[in-house]
Fold:
Amino acid sequence: MKATPLADYHTHTPLCRHAEGSPEEYIEAALALELEEYGISDHAPQTPEPFDDWRMLESELPQYFEWIERARVRAGDELTVRAGLECDWFPDCHEWINQLGRCYEWDYLIGSIHYLGDQWDFDNPKWLSRWAETNIDEVWTAYWEEYARMARSGMFEILGHPDLIKKFAYTPEGDLRRFYDPVIESIVAGGSAIELNTAGFHKPCAEQYPSAEFLKLAAKASIPITLSSDAHAPGEVARDFEKGLRLIEEAGFTKLCRFKKRSRREVAIRG
Ligand code: ZN
Ligand code: FE
Ligand code: FE
Ligand code: ZN
Structure:
């Protein structure tokens, strides 16, 4: 039997100012890897502008739509191209996310937490010295409380890189299930899927997001999952997907999600 056909739904474009490559190059990478679907999910604009220096402006959305269109032209009927956005979660983001949701025919929205409060984009390497003097337990608590709120909102098809807070390898002592258990419950309540994001292998934490233990709890709770690379360059498309898929299976998942026009279906994993 043919191996599981894969989709990579978390990828970026140079409009976010920290990614490289043309739509054609990304699609050629996806074709070479025989992906079944390729999803584009660049960092969404955020108000008030200018919000930070690592996303497109609202006025650049038309360029983003053109980028997606060019990708679709290159893909032709060889590959399905899906359109998404990686949106930043803030406690008061509902209206803005709804507005973004209406401006294009999206296949899915990813909800990610990169900010705690509205000031600290904790996964930005410029904050490494701040991390060294941070109370890790307090920051983890704040992060997961916010993640649970995002999950309960039900506003996103996919919840991005669940334990991104570990990126720089600052992890609390002891059993991390004290953080995981409540958020698993919230994810079930909100009905979104999560992703296994392979970018973490290449960060100081040196493992996928989320941890194997989190994945096991998610599988047990029947939370749907996708496998994604968070590619910021054509060479990163579907990076480490073999490793990622193995972890997904080992955790007990038997299916992967697909998205079209903001509705989800699941396909069986074939070993
Ligand atoms: Zn990025
Ligand atoms: Fe992200
Ligand atoms: Fe991303
Ligand atoms: Zn991301």
The chain has eight helices and nine strands. The pocket of fe (iii) ion (ligand 3) is lined by residues 10, 12, 86, 230 (CB under 6 Å). Helices lie at 23-32, 61-75, 94-102, 128-132, 136-153, 177-190, 212-220, 241-251.
